[in-house]
Amino acid sequence: MIGGPDQMRGSTLLAVDGVSVSLSGREVLHDVTFGIEAGEFTGLIGSNGAGKTTLLRVILGLVAATSGRVLIGGRAASRQNPLIGYVPQKIALDPDMPLRARDLVGLGLDGHRFGIPRPSAARNALIDEMLDAVDATRFADVRIGNLSGGEQQRILIAHALISRPRLLLLDEPLANLDIRSEQEVVALVSRIATDQHVAVLISAHDVNPLLPVMDRVVYVAAGRVASGTTNQVVCTEALSRLYGHQVDVIHVRDRVLVVAAREDVAVHGGRDAAVGLA
Amino acid sequence: MFAGFMIRAWEAATIVAVVAGVVGFFTVTRGSAFAAHALPNGAFAGAAGASLIGVNTIVGLGVFSLLGALTISALGRRARRDVATALVIVMMLGLGALFLSMTTEYAPQIYSLLFGEVLGVANNELLPTAAIGAGCIAAIVILYRPLLLSSVMTDVAEARGISPRRMELAFLVVVALTTTMAVPVVGSLLIFSLLIGPAAAARSLANTPHGAMAASIVIAVATVWAAIALSYATNLPIGFFVGTISATAYAAAQAWNAWRHAHPGIADAVAAGRAPVVTTSP
Amino acid sequence: MTELALLGPVFEPGFFSNPPVQRALMVGGVVAVVSGVVGTFTVVRGQSFAGHALADIGTAGGSAAFLLGISPLYGFVAMNLVAAGVMELIGIRRPRGRDVATGIVLGAALGLAALFLYLDTTTTSTTGATINVLFGSIFELSASMVPIITVFALTAVGVVVVLYRPLLLSSLSPDLAAARGVPLRVVGIGYLFALAIAVSLSAVTIGAILSTALLVGPAATALRLTKRTGLAMVLAATVGVAATWIGILLAYDSYYWPPTHQGWPVSFFVVTLVLVFYLAAQLPSPRRSRAPDGQPAARTA
Questions:
Q1: Angle C208-225/C266-282 helices, nearest 10 degrees?
Q2: Interface ipTM
Q3: Which of A53, A158, B9, C170 could be bridged to A130 by S-S, CB 3.0 to 4.6 A?
Q4: Interface residue C299 vs chain B (CB under 8 A)
Q5: Using a CB-CB distance cutoff of 8 angstroms, which residues of chain B are in contact with residue A113?
Q6: CA closest to A60 among chain B residues
Q7: Which neighbouring-strand residues pair with A169?
Q8: Is 3.40.50.740 the CATH number for B4-272?
Q9: pTM here?
Q10: Could you tell me the maximum CA-CA distance found in chain C, to the nearest angstrom?
Q11: Domain range spanning residue A215?
Q12: Size of interface B-C (CB pairs under 8 A)
């Protein structure tokens, strides 16, 4: 998946151009510029508070940029953009909520329209197809409140996919997962992206789980952004420039450790950074 | 029990119960129990005020409950939802206290506004009750999908163009209208038992939203029918039966829930019509 | 005496020497302080509905006590302690489910209240029973209640003081508290008991309406002005006392006002003042925006 020639190259799907965002008088994003092509798998990497979620919300049209612009498929970002499918980190679910997994996926198709859903064979077939795509058929009839975290995630992805977006936005799907689960989720998303021909923008703390599948990385630190291929961005020079002080990028076999020289900056590199060299 | 005037009581109560079952489904889904309690109570103040100036009670109920809905929504933007609701209810009750002090209403009439006077529903009141009730149901039908999506996944709904604030306001207005048609029949203190109990019980009986709403309507209607029958037989207030039957239905549903979680395979198969295997990973 | 003459228009003659007024000021002051202290945690924990519900729930106990010839206050407290226990027992953690459970308990209690009030009216033929219990008046306190009120007040405040640290931590960050070994269930129910007593106290002495108004309003006002809980408790008590005393004064002054020339209710004045103070505290800051992490800024008021 890394920059391969078999990728669908079309017009720029997502263009973020000189975007700055101020919230409550504080500048959260400064002069952010990057682009995503159709079918690309992009990682949005940064620690908490760096501005990842704000950037996602700008793309979703939920937050207005103070300056600059965001174009999706050539048109300005707005809410209710059919080109984007949004997968939140998780939703607070009530085990008593009478809603099955397949009902939630069905809402992804027409939940934004008024009235009651009209069941039809075509609608059901589409829902079944999506459930199959995320490998959720076996728990399709279970209440959403009874699903495990991983199962819920698949359903949320199916919900976002069913309306055939061109870009899938995933907000920290790997948070609080053990390494094996991380790998499973990344493999799942990557497979779906290929099968369904969608671009993916996935936000995360740590670049490592995404290394095998990323075409492009957008690194966020203190509201500023560096974007390009993994080799271009995840290296000592580029990250030091981004952070504004010395940052070392160490390669250990197939993993990457990002280490800041100063103590008060969070260390990236996965849970085993302290243990070091696995 | 089925004499001429009683027929109207059965009709009025059934209409109220059906509307309560429909609106109650979303009340419980959204956890809006406090608003469901606050709006009818505030509406009571409006009724007192209306009788003070010689206007139809229903107008007073409607105006105050709608004002309450708008205020909860407006205040809710700047403050926690529960604080906003608490302030709105005390504001309206404070006005209610003021109106009551100026009026010469006898205590029994106040009692009936609070606890309902099913047997006092006159023929000419049935039409407005049914009309407003039909409006409430129509509103829920129209709002069904976006309201459901917004209630379950607020952020995603917002990204798809469904404003959580507008949904909340629309829902509160529907509760206000439900209040307006229901208070003269079952009273302001008890409409909310009908909004919450049946819908809360229904969740344990059905896996789908439409199934839960249907169950909610059935339980609500059964509750009022039982309440009227028991009230007629024992001469005790109908509100007593509505409150206790609702609580019993909820308790029974929770017990069924607990049993269901202890015996997952059997219960899920019964509810879903097959026997799915629920794994705990990834 | 010239200073008093200036204040003449404000304080109608006989205000300070009037025994019911003196009792009202004292009891109202005590209740306002207790409500402010307990109410601060009510608002922080998002349990305003429980706080309001207990005022109505206690009515069932109060009217049962009335039937049995016992002072309503004891019935109120007993009913509320049981209800608080049941609410904690149903013990649903998520706010939505918790409010629904509170609603069910409230509905059942109101059903019981309907029953007892009906029996009250028919057996003891006091038609004002309904109004009294639900809209209770601060000017109808008997002198013998004062010591009991003081005991209950001290108990409620005492529980909050004793539980202060674990209560604060478990209210602001339940996960952190659990990790630090704070017994969340015990703290939760201890707090609900304090709330039950505080609300019983206020509902019986100043009425169910003011009970909620003084529990939530001043605390919400205080939390708008400061993030420090200890300071907020002091501010809440102060605002509550101010609203209560000024409200009593206005009610006394209104004795000669139209239309009934019997005075406007205290509850109306106090509620209005509570609201005025709350809205005044809203003025400094504009509408809260969403925090950078995309979630609504954590609201404590």
A1: 20
A2: 0.86
A3: A158
A4: yes
A5: 145-146
A6: B159
A7: A86, A201
A8: no
A9: 0.87
A10: 64
A11: 12-229
A12: 193
